[in-house]
C-alpha cells in the first residue's frame, strides 16, 4: 500500500430519505480519482463515520472499493467501541479495502496498555492500520514507537498540529522502525500547515478541500516546493478564509465539505446530527471563498 500525492476523504452522500446514496458516492469517488488523488479514505471523519451504522460503513467502503477498481488504495474508517471497530475492520477486509484508518475509541479512555490491546485487536483482523492521533489520543514518542511495533500498524495520521511533538515522534519512529512507516498531516485544513510539516519530513497530507475543489487542492499540491508565490496566494485568499469560516461553528469541518459539494452541483444531502448545515450567510461566504480559489487555480493552469 503506497500512498502518494493528495489524500482524498470523500463525504458520505445521503438521499432525500436520509439513506446512503451509493450512486452519488460512486460519482464523488470517481471525480476524486480522475483528479489524481493518491488514496481514498472512505467512511472516515469527513465521511461522518461517527453517524453511520455498521451496515452503512460497510456499504460506503464497498462502494468506494468497487468504484476505484484498484486504481488507488482505499482505506476504511474504523473506531468506536472495540466490537464496533472490529466490525468495521472485518467489513473493510471483506470489501477488499487496502487498509484502515483507526480513530481513537470514543469516550472510554484507558491506560497505554489498554490502548495497545485495542489497536492490536483491530490490526489482527488483517488490513494494515494507520492510527489517527487526535482528541484523546495524544502519543509520546515512546508510545508511538510501541504502537508502531504492533504487527499490521503501518502509519500515523496527525490531527493535533503539535509540530514539536510530531518532530520528536517522526525522529523516534524512523530511528526505531525505519523509513517505511507512513506519516501524514491530517489536520482539518492541512494545506494551511503543510509547509511546516514538510520542514519536519512529513510530505504527505490529506485535503478536505480536495473533496469539493480538487482543482484548487491540486494547484496547491503542485505549487509546494516550486511556486512559493502561488502557495502564499492560495493560503491568503482561499485556505486562511476557509479556516476562519470553519472555526465559527463546531463541526463545520465536515459541513463545509458537503456545502461546497452542493454549491458545485453535487447532490450529497445534508449532514447528520449533531452536525448542522451552513446558514445562508456562511453559505454565501463559502461561495465567495470557492470562487477565489478557483480563479487562482485557473491562473496557475
UniProtKB/TrEMBL annotation:
The EC number(s) this enzyme carries: 4.2.1.41
Keyword entries, A-Z: Lyase
SMART domains, alphabetized: DHDPS (SM01130)
Organism name: Streptomyces calidiresistens
InterPro entries the record matches: Aldolase_TIM, DapA-like, Dehydro-deoxyglucarate_dehyd
Functional pathway: Carbohydrate acid metabolism; D-glucarate degradation; 2,5-dioxopentanoate from D-glucarate: step 2/2
NCBIfam families, alphabetized: PRK03620.1
Residues the record marks as active site: 132, 157
A Pfam family that the UniProt record links to this protein: DHDPS
Protein family (similarity comment): Belongs to the DapA family.
Protein name per UniProt: Probable 5-dehydro-4-deoxyglucarate dehydratase
GO molecular function ontology, one term from the record: 4-hydroxy-tetrahydrodipicolinate synthase activity
HAMAP family: KDGDH
Domain of life: Bacteria
GO BP terms, alphabetized: D-glucarate catabolic process
Classification lineage: Bacteria, Bacillati, Actinomycetota, Actinomycetes, Kitasatosporales
